[in-house]
Amino acid sequence: MKVDEFDSIIFDCDGVLIDVTTSYDTTINKTISYVLKEIADITADTPLTNEMLLKFKSTGGFNDEIDITYSGVLCYIAAKKLKKNPTELILDILNNADDTGIAYIEGFLDKIDVDISDIKSRLNYPSVEKNDLIHATFDQLFFGPELYEKIFQKKSKFSDKGFIENDNVIVTSALIETLKKKFNDKIAIVTGRGLDAISSSLKEILNQFNVESSVFLEDESRDLAKPNPQSLIRTMKGLNSKNCLYVGDSMEDMILAKKASELGFNATFCGIYGSSKLPEMKKKLFTEFSAPLILETINQLPDTLLIQKS
To answer: What's the CATH code of the domain at 234?
Structure first.
């Protein structure tokens, strides 16, 4: 890999531009706790450990945090019905998981003959309008009352501030300006977030990216979710890019870049591991799967790409 061969740079958001360990990750657990209490009278303060969260995200099938949330709820209820330790059951499921996400979780539970059809029916996830209990609870807790009402035109049943306020922005204006000069303004984003969510956290920094060519998958149809490569391909076309560096932090991001390349759109993956709660485990994962480029933080990009300091 030659670092001077790229004509554009495209970023994932969560775990790359923003550290979400106390925002999205916290919302996953808070939502699981709330839903379990509501529908099954199960008390679980921190349902998913850091190891479990990383294992979910390492399968390649869980780019959407709300899918992880739903799966966590199913596993806890299945464990209760089976009279098993939920932690042991979840780790057993994830240790052999493939990249089909929810379908794998539901299939695994079917194979071990635990009937959770009543719960699946009650949850009705994912609903087209995103008004099911999982979606509604997650979004209200994450966005907070004011932003939730702005986005969804509905009142939140929660009054506490949203966990989105815990987002820790890693990217700086100075870094983006440096990269824009290197790539002649061909710099964009492909993220699972919606535009409102990323705007709320990045604020004016977002305007330094080519927003028109960027893709915000929460605002798109579900079939475009990562690792479907069409979002990255669309962004590359918008930038008129022949050879991009795609910077992400998950297996879905790595698979996304690989699939785009297989379709003739040269995309090289750069894995970021430093914003994980278990950074060495994530670094090991990227190494085992031969990620072309592995960095602790995006702040190492200028030196890695041999960008001359002005």
So the answer is: 3.40.50.1000
